[in-house]
Amino acid sequence: MGTTHDFTLRFSRRYSMGHRLISDAAPNCRVPHGHDEVVTVELVSEGNSKLDPRTNMLVEFDQAKRRWFDWIDDAVDHSFHLNEEDPLVGFFSEHEPHLMARLLLTPGDPTTEIRAACFKSKLGCFLQHDNPGLRCSSLTIQETPTNAVICEAVDPAQMMPTGDHWWSRADLSINDLPQN
């Protein structure tokens, strides 16, 4: 059984996205389409810290969520999620290079599961940089009103290729392509 935490900070953000899956695992998803998704994160104190006696808070909400919300709002909202091997990446590179920064690329198909792992890893980088006393215990992507994926992996980066990738940096990137 996991550690019990005295306090959990939970917050959600809605965004719109488009994607397509090129494997044959979900044939209906081969056609580009979109979703309005909600991502909900739960943050806990790394050492199960008590409330700050001066503020009666673990951390002020805005401090805990600001960079995360900026990333969701400015990079993820209205981005197009593709397998890094999808031929559409080449199309955008050749015909619409100004949109390359709007492509969220994943290792393999951009399923909700791999995106949840990438997002949780990215949030972990933000927290390590801005709020090292907090960690994300759970990240949920609500893909449709009836489908959601919850990632509770302690180290979601272990599910993905190693190295310097967008999900392992505390910047606002969503791919590793050269930007114009």
What does it look like?
With 180 residues, the chain is an alpha/beta fold. It has a 6-stranded mixed β-sheet. It contains 3 helices and 6 strands; from the N terminus they run ββαβαβαββ. The mean pLDDT is 92. It has one domain (13-147): Tetrahydropterin Synthase, Chain A, CATH 3.30.479.
Number of strands: 6
| CATH topology type | Tetrahydropterin Synthase, Chain A
Largest beta-sheet characterization: 6 strands, mixed
Query: Overall 3D geometry?
Result: elongated
The ordered H/E elements are: EEHEHEHEE
Q: What number of structural domains do the residues give? A: 1
Name the CATH class: Alpha Beta
Q: What CATH architecture would you give?
A: 2-Layer Sandwich
Strand content: 25-35%
Oligomer: single chain
CATH superfamily: 6-pyruvoyl tetrahydropterin synthase/QueD
The Cα radius of gyration reads 17 Å
Helix percent reads: 10-25%
> How far apart lie the N and C ends?
48 Å
Helix count from the secondary structure assignment: 3
Given helix and strand content, the structural type is alpha/beta
Low-confidence stretches: none
